[in-house]
Write a structure and sequence with these properties.
alpha+beta; Ribosomal Protein S5, domain 2; 2 domains; 5-stranded antiparallel β-sheet; 4-stranded antiparallel β-sheet; 11 strands
Length: about 210
């Protein structure tokens, strides 16, 4: 499970863009326009590609690639969209890899200028157009972690909060009734240690469980 993103670059996780970026490149009279967007899922990626194809309907090719998720569960997809095999989608994808971005889609629109660039020339043009868009682009970190639900008496509130802060966690939701019920998020590398610490501190008066 991932957490809300911020600008920090610490802790386990991966980077995406803060917002969309664009660039344009002309090679041998062909015009290349790149749009690179942060995304949350494949559906959003496909919607962005479809919107570009509709907006730039006069272009000969609308090629793209995207990356989603953390390293251990990463999904990658690319399309040459009519260009010679391997000359567009893979170079676009490589530009995203080089920038170490995930949850990101890059679309490159090409207007043919009448001069054939060859497979190598096409690959460089598609890659360079995306790389230019990403040059200096603001990134944000998506931290990896998980949630716990904690039920405890009011007398343990300060203790639980102390351990939460110590382990780099944050409260997601709070309910105050007969007992306190907090749903908390913690980085993946401190989740088990936090669970053990508050369970020991609670001395049988505190319960933790994974939210449904």
């Amino acid at each position: 499970m991932s957490a809300p993103t911020d600008d920090a670059a610490e802790g386990p996780g991966y980077d995406t863009l803060v917002g969309p970026v664009t660039s344009e490149l002309k090679v041998q009279r062909s015009r290349f326009l790149a749009e690179v967007h942060p995304i949350v899922d494949e559906q959003e990626a496909r919607s962005i590609v479809a919107a570009a194809a509709k907006q730039y309907h006069d272009a000969r090719h609308v090629c793209f690639a995207w990356r989603l998720g953390p390293v251990h569960a990463r999904v990658e997809h690319r399309s040459d969209a009519g260009e010679p095999s391997g000359s567009a989608g893979e170079p676009i994808l490589n530009a995203l890899r080089q920038a170490e971005l995930s949850d990101t889609v890059a679309v490159v629109v090409r207007w043919f200028g009448g001069v054939k660039l060859g497979t190598g020339g096409l690959g460089r043009a598609y890659r360079d157009t995306v790389a230019a868009a990403l040059d200096g682009a603001a990134k944000r970190r998506i931290h990896l972690g998980g949630e716990l639900e904690i039920i405890f008496p009011y007398s343990l509130q300060k203790t639980v909060n102390h351990h939460l802060e110590q382990h780099g966690g944050r409260r997601v939701s709070e309910v105050y009734a007969d007992d306190v019920v907090w749903r908390v998020w913690l980085p993946s590398h401190t989740l088990d240690a936090f669970d053990a610490a508050v369970t020991e501190a609670g001395q049988g008066r505190l319960q933790t469980k994974t939210p449904e």
